[in-house]
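WARN  no MSA supplied for this record, continuing single-sequence
INFO  ligand: zinc ion
INFO  echoing inputs
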Amino acid sequence: MRSTKPGRIPCINPRCNRTAPADKYEDGDEIICGKCRRSLPSAMNRRFMKHRRAFDRLDRMRKQKKYAGRVHQINRMQWICHRIITEVWADMKSYFREPDRPEGIDNFLDEMGMR
Ligand SMILES: [Zn+2]
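INFO  complex generated
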């Protein structure tokens, strides 16, 4: 178990030493730093970013009058996005836990459509 400075949250990659200020997050939140996120297989990263953006977009839609009659639908879509984000987050964490993964190979395989 790593020790982290008080008031800081460590990156989910156990081999990364970057942290984020805890006061910007909720209790129990986890973070991934930009460098580790970019090191993920591109398909995993794309899936994560896509659903996180959609989640935020739905948040903004909920506040607009023109979507007032569709709040139920917005909530449902957000719930689905949240489920996928949680799933990809778990994938990302186990990706970093795998020992001695050669860097770059997965990106290469993704780009070649070989995975
Ligand atoms: Zn990191």
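Strands lie at 8-10, 19-21.
INFO  checksum written, moving to next record
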